[in-house]
Design goal:
The chain has 84 residues and is an alpha+beta fold. 38% of the residues lie in helices and 21% in strands. β3 and β4 form a beta hairpin. The longest helix has 18 residues.
């Protein structure tokens, strides 16, 4: 199964760029019919992970994917599952 990966470590303090990258990866997954996207906000204080989850919870974005999974073995990783 094909998977896309987005590591946010390098842009953790650039809010506008984070949202642009999240939009880009969701759009790319939809265009290429990729069923799994891995987002790595990192462990840190948890603020970046919360920002990612808030982004994914927006109505227009939420309608695009099947479900979000928080990795129970790695706090700093989120999976987005798509159904095609």
């Amino acid at each position: 199964m094909a998977k896309l990966k987005l590591d946010l470590h390098d842009i953790y303090n650039r809010g506008d760029q984070i949202e642009a990258e999240l939009n880009r990866i969701v759009k790319e997954a939809l265009e290429r019919k990729i069923e799994l996207v891995e987002i790595i906000p990192g462990k840190g204080s948890g603020q970046l992970k919360k920002k990612v989850l808030r982004f994914l919870n927006q109505g227009n974005i939420k309608a695009l994917y099947h479900r979000v999974e928080k990795d129970d073995k790695n706090f700093g990783r989120i999976f987005i599952h798509f159904k095609f």
